[in-house]
Fold:
Amino acid sequence: MKTPDFIIESRPLAQTPVRFAVVSVAAFAVDLALALTLRDAFGLAVFQAAALSFVLLAFATYFIHEHWTFRREGSRSSARRMARNVAANITALTARVAVIAALEALHDPGMALAAAYIVVGGGASLGVNFLLNRFWVFAAKG
Structure:
């Protein structure tokens, strides 16, 4: 008997958002620290530093999602899913940069406000990224 699509390795689908959140929160903590370091060390605009740190962490999180978050029987890295993941990350990055750039255009931030801008932009990219990863990149038939 085939396992239903809503069950992933005998694990209820409800655990997937929890795993995604765990990975995302850990990655975002590193992302925030890296973005602020890049901004401070290299004098980058907040949106530039946030974009660069996002890209650096995007590939690492793909492998974690592939082998833990959205793991299913026979999970292995896939060029097709990697390409979809890159497209999802570009879309999420676009959402992040757009939100941060819009906020930065309103007011040039100091360090604390820059961190807040990155958190707000991160929330936008997190939502976009989860939806695309769950329902497109790692969809049961993908």
Summary: Strands lie at 7-8, 11-12.
